[in-house]
Design goal:
heterodimer, A: about 260 residues, Rossmann fold, 2 domains, seven-stranded mixed β-sheet, 7 strands, globular, B: about 675 residues, alpha/beta, Immunoglobulin-like
Chain lengths: ~260, ~675
C-alpha cells in the first residue's frame, strides 16, 4: 500500500517536472544571456574606451551600425583600447557612471527629459563625462535641433553652446583638420559647452555617424562624396580621441609641430 | 575829563586784548658747552685688528673728554646692548661683547636723551654690525633731530693685503624660475686700482662672473641676479681667485645654500595609450594652478596603419632621448600611466636615470598599471623603486576599495574622522587590477575588498617618494560620485605627499632656517582655501616652541592682499625653535604647517676681521657727521656748538597767570564806572 502511494506520487512529480522543464530552460537561458551581457558591459573596462549610446525614445538609434565601423577603424589606426560592443543605456541606468563618453543621436522630435534626467546629465558632465550629440536631420531650429538645444540650456546654463573654433584641440586630437566636415553640411561649425578648459558637450548637426553606416553588403547607406565621407570620419575619430585625451594637443609642446604641419 | 575816560578805555581794551592772546615771554637756559654722547664699541671685534686700538680709544676719552671744560660728555659702552658709564668705568672698560649692534645703540641713545640736551654723538667703532637690522630709519631720525654722529673708526694699519668675502645676503624665500638677488660684501685691502673677477658658482660650474673694480681699500658691494630652475636645496658659492701674499686664502670663497620652493610643481606624464584614466587625471592636473603639466601619450603604435601622410596627423615624435637623459631632471614628478617602455628604443641608462631621479634627486614617481602589467619592469632599475612586487596577471573583476589607512592624509576627505570613514566606505566600485604583492617598508593605503590585492601603495625611496596605483579605473571616483571632489582631492593630496611641496599646501610657512642668537626671524605665511585661492581675512595662529620648551602663541596679521601673513620672531635662545601655524577662516579649518629653525651661538665677532668703513661712513654721512680715525680725531678741533632747543626754556614770563593782572583790570573798570557816576555821565 505504502509502496503504491509512493509510486503514484513519484509519477505525478515526474509529470509535473516534465511540464515545467521548458520554463526552467527559458529562465536559465535568459539568466545566462543577461549574465553574459552584463559581463560584457561591466567588466574589463579599466581605462578602455566604451562607446555608449543613450536610449531616450523610440527614435534614439538613427545610426545603429556606426560604432561597428568606427571601432574597427579606431583599432587599426590608433593605440586606443576599446570595449568592442556598443553600450546602450538609459539615464536611469547605473552603468551611465561607467561610461565617460555617451552619444545622443537623433533626427526627429524627442521627448523632453524629465527634471531628474536633466539633473543626472548635469551631474554627469560635472563629474567628467562627455556627451556627443549628432543630429542627422539636417534641419536647423526644428525638431531634434530645437529640443536638444533646450535640453543643453538646462544641463549647462552657465556654459552655453558656443562654436568650437577650428584651432581647438578637437580638430587636432589625431588628424589635423582645417575645416568642419560632415556627411551633410548643415553647419560650417560644430558647437560645444566648455567646462574649465575642456568641452563637456559637443554638438554636431552634420550627421557624423551617418558617414559610417553600411548595409550588410558593405555599401554605404547614406550618400556623400568620398572626400566628404573621409573628412567626416576623421572628425568623428578626433572627437573620440578628444574624449580620451582632452586638450592634450593644445599643450605648448605640440604647438610648433602642429603649426609647421598646418603651414 | 573826556581824555581821562578815553585813556582809561584804551588801557582796559589793551588789557582785554592781552588777556585774549596771552603773550608769554620765554627765558632760555643759556648753555656754553655742548652735550655729547660718547658711544664706545666694546665688542670682541674691536680687538680683531689689535687690542692696542681699543686702548687708543680709551686714551682719547681720557685725554680729550675727561675733565674737558669745553664739553659735557655722557659715556656709554655698547655691544649687543648699551650701558651708561662713569668716568671711572672707562679705565677698566674691556672688550667683551659677543655681538655688535651699532644701530641699536644709536636708537637707544636717542631714546635715553628724549627731552634732554644732546648736541652730537661720537661713535668709536670698527663698524662690524652683526645683529641683523634691515631698518636704517634711526639715521634719518638723528638727521632730522640735527644730531650729527661723528664716527671714529679704529685704525687698520698693520694689516696684510687680503680679499675677503665678508657677507652674502640671500632672500629668505626663493621660488623656482623667479629672479633672486644675491648681495655680496667683499672687503679688500692692498689691491688698489686692480680688477678682480668674482664668480658665482654652482658646484664647479661658473654661473656668472662680475668684475670688481677696486679704487680704494675697503668694503665693496656686488649683486648677482639668479633664476634657480631647480626646486629644493641648491648649493652655490661666491669665489674670487687667490693672490700671492694674501693674509688668508680661505676667505676668498664663501658657500651658501638656497632653498628653492617650486613655484609650480612640474609634472611629466607619460601615458601608453589614450584612456579615460588619462583624460580624467590630465583634466585634474591641468585645472590645478599649482601644477605645470607636460604630457605625452602614445596615440599610435608601430602596428597601427594610418592611410594619410604624416603632415595630416597631429602626431609628434616622442623625444625619448631628450626626455630621459636631460629633461627629466627639470621635473618634480614623473607619471608612468600604463606606459610600456619596452616599445621604445630606451637606452638602459635611461631607466637608471629614472631610478636616480627618485632615489638620488629626491623626486616623485607615480606609476599606474592595469592595462599594462607592472611585470614589464621586472629586472630593470625601475623595479627597485616600485613599492610592490608585480605579476603579469590582470584581474578584470569589479571590486570595492578597502581602505586600510583612513588616517593617512592622502585619503582624508573630511576633517571629521567619522565622516571620513563613512566617505571611504562608500567610494564607488572600480574594476581591473594588476595583481601584485607589497614590498617591505611599503605603506598599503587601499586594497581590493575581497581579493585583497594592493591598489594604492606608497613608499619612500631614497630621497624621493613613489606611489603605485594598480588599476586604470580610478576615474570612477569622479564619474561614480555626486561630484568630482573626492577624485580631485585624492590626487591633490597624493601630489602634495609625493612632492612634499609647500605650494600644494593650503597653509605654508616660510622663513630662513638657520640663524645666530639675537637675530630675528622674518616669518611669512601663505594661506589658501581648498581651491588654492589666497585668503586675506583668515585667523592665523602661530605657536612658537622655544628651545627651553616654553610655548608662545602669536596671532599673525595679514601683510598684503594676497593671502600673505607675516611677523618677526626675536630669537633670544640658541637651539631649535619649532613654529606651528594653524589657519581658520570663518571658523573653518584651512590647514596647518610647521617648520623648525636652528639658532646657533657662534661668535660673529671674529667673522669679519676688517673695519667696515663704508658702513661707518654711511652713518656719518646720513646724519651730517664726519668720519675720523683714531689718529685723526681731535675733539678740540671740532666745532660742536650747543644748540638751543624748545626744551631748553629756563622759565616763562606770563602775566596772565597772576591775580594781580585781573585785579588791575577790575579796578580800572570800577574806576571808570565810579568817575562816570560822579560826573553824571552815566
Amino acid at each position: 500500500m505504502i509502496t503504491q502511494i509512493f509510486k503514484n506520487d513519484y509519477t505525478d512529480l515526474k509529470n509535473k517536472l516534465r511540464r515545467i522543464r521548458p520554463f526552467f530552460l527559458v529562465v536559465f537561458l535568459i539568466l545566462t544571456f543577461n549574465f553574459l551581457l552584463l559581463t560584457c558591459l561591466y567588466c574589463q573596462q579599466g581605462g578602455k574606451f566604451v562607446f555608449s549610446q543613450l536610449k531616450y525614445s523610440d527614435n534614439w538609434d538613427t545610426r545603429p551600425t556606426a560604432w561597428d565601423r568606427i571601432s574597427e577603424y579606431l583599432l587599426t589606426t590608433t593605440s586606443v583600447k576599446i570595449i568592442p560592443g556598443r553600450r546602450v543605456l538609459k539615464l536611469s541606468d547605473e552603468i551611465l557612471y561607467w561610461s565617460p563618453f555617451i552619444v545622443i543621436a537623433g533626427n526627429t522630435d524627442h521627448p523632453d527629459f524629465t527634471e531628474t534626467e536633466i539633473q543626472i546629465l548635469k551631474r554627469y558632465i560635472l563629474c567628467g563625462g562627455l556627451i556627443f550629440i549628432d543630429d542627422s536631420s539636417g534641419k536647423k531650429g526644428f525638431g531634434f535641433d530645437k529640443n536638444i538645444r533646450d535640453v543643453i540650456r538646462k544641463i549647462s546654463p552657465e556654459n552655453p553652446l558656443d562654436k568650437i573654433p577650428v584651432s581647438d584641440a578637437v580638430f587636432k586630437s589625431f588628424y589635423l583638420l582645417k575645416n568642419v566636415p560632415g556627411r551633410i553640411t548643415t553647419n560650417r561649425y560644430i558647437e560645444g559647452c566648455k567646462i574649465g578648459e575642456r568641452y563637456s558637450i559637443i554638438y554636431s548637426q552634420n550627421d557624423l555617424l551617418g558617414a559610417w553606416e553600411k548595409d550588410n553588403l558593405g555599401n554605404y547607406i547614406y550618400p556623400c562624396s568620398e572626400q566628404q565621407r573621409w573628412e567626416t570620419k576623421k572628425l568623428m575619430l578626433n572627437i573620440i580621441l578628444y574624449s580620451l585625451t582632452g586638450t592634450y594637443k593644445s599643450d605648448t609642446i605640440h604647438k610648433s609641430f602642429i603649426q609647421n604641419k598646418l603651414q | 575829563m573826556k581824555k581821562l575816560f578815553l585813556i582809561l578805555r584804551i588801557i582796559i581794551f589793551l588789557l582785554i586784548i592781552l588777556l585774549i592772546f596771552q603773550p608769554v615771554k620765554k627765558v632760555y637756559n643759556k648753555r656754553n658747552i655742548p652735550s655729547v654722547a660718547l658711544l664706545i664699541d666694546n665688542s670682541l671685534s674691536m680687538g680683531n685688528v689689535s687690542t692696542r686700538e681699543f686702548e687708543k680709544v680709551k686714551s682719547i676719552l681720557k685725554s680729550q673728554f675727561i675733565g674737558n671744560a669745553m664739553v659735557s660728555p655722557h659715556y656709554f659702552s655698547f655691544s649687543s646692548d648699551i650701558k651708561e658709564l662713569t668716568e671711572k668705568d672707562i679705565q677698566s672698560l674691556k672688550i667683551q661683547g659677543s655681538k655688535t649692534d651699532i644701530l641699536g645703540a644709536l636708537e637707544k641713545t636717542k631714546t635715553n636723551f628724549l627731552g634732554k640736551n644732546l648736541d652730537g654723538i661720537i661713535l668709536f667703532s670698527d663698524g662690524n654690525q652683526n645683529v641683523e637690522k634691515d631698518d636704517f630709519e634711526i639715521l634719518n631720525e638723528l638727521s632730522n633731530l640735527k644730531i650729527p654722529v661723528l664716527v671714529v673708526k679704529i685704525e687698520q694699519k698693520d694689516i696684510q693685503k687680503n680679499i675677503s668675502i665678508s657677507k652674502i645676503e640671500i632672500p629668505e624665500i626663493i621660488f623656482r624660475n623667479t629672479n633672486a638677488i644675491i648681495n655680496i660684501k667683499i672687503h679688500t685691502f692692498g689691491f688698489t686700482n686692480k680688477n678682480i673677477p668674482i664668480y658665482l658658482k654652482s658646484g664647479n660650474n661658473i654661473i656668472q662672473t662680475k668684475t670688481l673694480n677696486i679704487q680704494n681699500d675697503g668694503m665693496y658691494e656686488l649683486a648677482f641676479e639668479i633664476t634657480p630652475d631647480k626646486a629644493g636645496v641648491n648649493n652655490y658659492s661666491i669665489e674670487t681667485p687667490t693672490y700671492q701674499g694674501e693674509k688668508s686664502y680661505s676667505d676668498n670663497i664663501k658657500k651658501f645654500t638656497l632653498e628653492v620652493e617650486p613655484e609650480k610643481i612640474r609634472i611629466l606624464y607619460l601615458c601608453g595609450q589614450p584612456s579615460f584614466n588619462y583624460s580624467f587625471l590630465r583634466t585634474t592636473l591641468k585645472n590645478d594652478p599649482n601644477i605645470e603639466l607636460v604630457s605625452f601619450i602614445i596615440l599610435r603604435n608601430p602596428e597601427n596603419i594610418v592611410a594619410v601622410p604624416d603632415s595630416e596627423l597631429s602626431l609628434i615624435p616622442f623625444p625619448v632621448d631628450e626626455i630621459f637623459s636631460r629633461e627629466i631632471f627639470n621635473f618634480d614628478m614623473l607619471i608612468f600611466d600604463n606606459f610600456n617602455y619596452s616599445r621604445f628604443a630606451i637606452n638602459p641608462q635611461y631607466l637608471v636615470n629614472i631610478r636616480n631621479f627618485v632615489i638620488e634627486y629626491g623626486k616623485a614617481f607615480l606609476i599606474i598599471s592595469g592595462e599594462i602589467p607592472l611585470s614589464i619592469y621586472q629586472n630593470t632599475p625601475i623595479s627597485e623603486i616600485l613599492p610592490v612586487n608585480p605579476t603579469n596577471e590582470i584581474s578584470q573583476d569589479k571590486f570595492s576599495l578597502n581602505i586600510l589607512k583612513p588616517d593617512n592624509n592622502i585619503l582624508k576627505f573630511s576633517d571629521d574622522n567619522k565622516e571620513n570613514i563613512s566617505i571611504l566606505k562608500n567610494l564607488p566600485e572600480l574594476d581591473t587590477i594588476n595583481i601584485s604583492t607589497i614590498k617591505e617598508k611599503t605603506t598599503l593605503l587601499a586594497e581590493s575588498e575581497k581579493s585583497k590585492y594592493p591598489v594604492i601603495t606608497i613608499s619612500d625611496m631614497g630621497k624621493g617618494r613613489v606611489m603605485c596605483i594598480t588599476t586604470p579605473s580610478l576615474w570612477r571616483l569622479a564619474l561614480g560620485s555626486e561630484n568630482p571632489y573626492k577624485y580631485v582631492k585624492l590626487w591633490g593630496q597624493s601630489i602634495k605627499w609625493l612632492t612634499n611641496s609647500s605650494s600644494m599646501k593650503q597653509v605654508a610657512i616660510f622663513t630662513k632656517k638657520s640663524y645666530n642668537i639675537g637675530d630675528s626671524s622674518l616669518v611669512k605665511i601663505k594661506v589658501k582655501d581648498e581651491y588654492f585661492k589666497p585668503v586675506n581675512n583668515a585667523v592665523v595662529n602661530l605657536i612658537i616652541t622655544k628651545p627651553d620648551s616654553k610655548k608662545e602663541t602669536v596671532n599673525v596679521p595679514p601683510e598684503i592682499e594676497n593671502g600673505e601673513y607675516g611677523t618677526k620672531i626675536p630669537l633670544e635662545l640658541s637651539g631649535t625653535y619649532k613654529l606651528e601655524v594653524y589657519a581658520y577662516y570663518n571658523r573653518k579649518y584651512l590647514g596647518e604647517d610647521s617648520i623648525s629653525l636652528s639658532v646657533f651661538d657662534i661668535s660673529r665677532e671674529s667673522e669679519d676681521i676688517m673695519v667696515n668703513e663704508p658702513f661707518l661712513k654711511q652713518i656719518s654721512d646720513k646724519t651730517n657727521g664726519t668720519l675720523y680715525s683714531t689718529n685723526s680725531f681731535n675733539y678740540n678741533e671740532l666745532k660742536i656748538k650747543p644748540r638751543i632747543t624748545k626744551s631748553d626754556v629756563l622759565y616763562e614770563i606770563n602775566i596772565w597767570n597772576k591775580t594781580f593782572t585781573y585785579l588791575i583790570l577790575i579796578i580800572l573798570l570800577c574806576l571808570e564806572w565810579y568817575l562816570r557816576r560822579k560826573y553824571g555821565l552815566l
